[in-house]
Amino acid sequence: MNIYNSNEFFLKSHIGKKSINRNWVCGELEIMKNEGFYSCKVVQKKSNKIVGLIDFKVDKEAYLSLLMIDNSFRGQGIGLRIYELFEMYTKSCKSSSIRIDVVTNYDRHVLDFWIKNGFKSIENITLNWNEKVLPAVVMRKDL
Known about the structure:
The chain contains 5 helices and 6 strands. By secondary structure, it is an alpha+beta fold.
């Protein structure tokens, strides 16, 4: 809950709220579980603090649904390191590609991050998350 709430701009743009509560998080976790996703917290070893979240599904094509860093830890390379470890994990699971859906009217730095890490735009789509319709692009990286 704290990771989401540290990213107020994300919450406003993606679900139309300033903050979320424990019930919202529990509901989201249940939805992701029912769809076959793993939802994991990322803990920094040296501080033992939760610094991020990652939701993913591993198959022939892995699907990275969410990679979020606590706003107070942004800019330290943590997101890149988490992604690199995720990519290593998907390769070890014999995935041949990774898919992500990136909201396009949110933060240009997010789209640039994925392009810099080898992802290519495949198609424009709309996402419906918590009854909010968002323009997005499907991106894929072959492994």
